[in-house]
Design brief:
By secondary structure, the protein is α/β, with parallel strands linked by helices. It has 5 helices and 9 strands, in the order βββααβαβαββββα. Helix content is 29%, strand content 29%. The protein has a 5-stranded mixed β-sheet with strand order 5-4-3-8-9. Strands 1-2 form a two-stranded antiparallel ribbon. Strand 6 and strand 7 form a beta hairpin. It starts with 12 loop residues before the first strand and ends with a helix. The relative contact order is 0.24.
């Protein structure tokens, strides 16, 4: 079942770029921007992550924590964070269990080849743990404007 606005956000536990475990419950009382992206250090994912990096102060002012989730290993996430100076938390969902919970592990089609992968989607979760906004198939260049706009509304 897709996660929709008003639903309690599914909790999770995932390792970050340093192997430390994070749970959604760790961020109770804050706005959480949980964004799913296909693969670290690819053009679209890099543009999206660098957008979050460059607008970090705006997220901070809105009491928002940004968590990026991909199917990459912590080692790959650390290399991605270091290469682009990403100071926010990147989480590795290698078995895509959290992506399944949020219904963003989907069939994709590239050049006629079908495969399973992460849909670029963002969930804005309120301080109460409920989903406030869902943005599916987000374009990297529009991501921060959409999310920051939702956080200020």
């Amino acid at each position: 079942m897709p996660v929709t606005p008003g639903d309690p956000a599914p909790d999770f536990e995932l390792p970050d770029q340093d192997g430390n475990k994070h749970k959604l419950a760790d961020y109770a009382g804050k706005n959480v921007v949980l964004y799913f992206y296909p693969k670290a250090d690819t053009p679209g994912c890099t543009a999206q992550a660098c957008g979050v990096r460059d607008r970090a102060s705006e997220y901070d002012k809105l009491n928002a924590v940004v968590l990026g989730v991909s199917p990459d290993s912590p080692k790959k996430l650390r290399a991605f964070a270091d290469k682009f100076g990403l100071a926010f938390t990147l989480l590795g969902d290698e078995d895509h269990s959290v992506a399944d919970e949020y219904d963003v592990w989907v069939e994709k089609n590239m050049y006629g080849k079908k495969y399973m992968g992460m849909e670029r989607s963002t969930f804005v979760i309120g301080p109460d743990g409920n989903v406030k906004h869902v943005f599916r198939k987000v374009k990297p260049a529009e991501h921060d404007d959409l999310v920051l706009g939702a956080l200020t509304s």
